[in-house]
Design a protein that fits this description.
Blueprint: H1 5-25, E1 32-38, H2 42-58, E2 61-67, H3 73-85, E3 91-94, H4 104-110, H5 122-129, H6 138-149, E4 158-162, H7 169-177, E5 186-190, H8 197-202, E6 206-209, E7 227-230, E8 234-237, E9 245-248, H9 253-256, E10 262-263, H10 270-287
Parallel strand pairs: 1-2, 1-3, 4-5, 4-6, 6-7, 7-10
Antiparallel strand pairs: 8-9
The structure holds nicotinamide-adenine-dinucleotide (NAD).
Nicotinamide-adenine-dinucleotide (NAD) binds next to helix 10.
Amino acid sequence: MIIDGKGLAETIKQELKDEVDEIRKQGGNIPHLAAVLVGDNPASASYVRNKVKFCEGAGFESTLIKKDVSISEEELLEIIEDLNGNEDIDGFIVQLPLPDHINEHRVTMAIDPSKDVDGFHPVNFGKMAQGLDSFLPATPYGIMTMLDRYNIETEGKHCVVVGRSNIVGTPMSILLSRKSKPGNCTVTLTHSRTKDIASECLRADILIAAIGIPKFISSDMVKEGAVIIDVGINRVEDASRKSGYRLVGDVDYDAVVEKASFITPVPKGVGPMTVTALMMNTLKAAKSK
Ligand code: NAD
């Protein structure tokens, strides 16, 4: 079965809109998300556009702050300070990656954890790891929501996560190993130094690929009936497209689709669910005021 991330995102957007309409009727606090975009990376610009569009669809307020690539770290930190103190803004994100002259860790650390709707701040990460209430990192939260809404059984399953980034692989491995639903998996976290990654993947009931290498997961790395979550978003040249490129995942979709019990496509799989999770966090931030 193909997991329709885009369709599920639309369903949840409508649910969020209904909730926001109710808040509006009662004169409550309308969720307001701000996004800071530095430079002109086309992928980043497209992600931020999608986030602003989702806000409009769900009845949220949004503010886009665009800055030239030449902005200094100090200037960016000042913007973050302003957003931290701005009562009108419930949550905000600084779209990554940032230019090389800006220290991403320092920027992440400057965001008030109570407005960190991307869930990247170590305070939120630490709370997540201990199973405490927090903003979950957007992509893993989107994937957990997907597993939940598709009623995919995770308890007692063996989950293999490929990639150990702070924003996807590592938090995914923590969330799925927690005593929760979805959760209760036995998790193997694999990465660039894993010895025999193919045989690790072959043992997976649930395989989560977050590497950033087109079609890395081939059919012979996948067990019959496995659940495949493809997080990768890779641009590959395609002269037949007007844009000159197309998006592919980290999984060789055409080769794996027949073997999988569930699989997410790229695009229209995990991507829209990441945006959805960001909005769920923003509503949570607005309601906690
Ligand atoms: P990253 O570059 O920070 O981390 C990649 C990870 O893959 C590293 O931990 C590394 O150890 C591992 N890796 C690299 N080469 C490997 C190899 N040969 N074998 C095994 N492991 C290897 O990446 P990230 O930020 O986690 O993103 C991963 C992919 O997911 C990218 O394509 C990114 O664009 C995409 N992404 C998608 C969404 C979404 O919403 N769909 C969100 C975030 C990231």
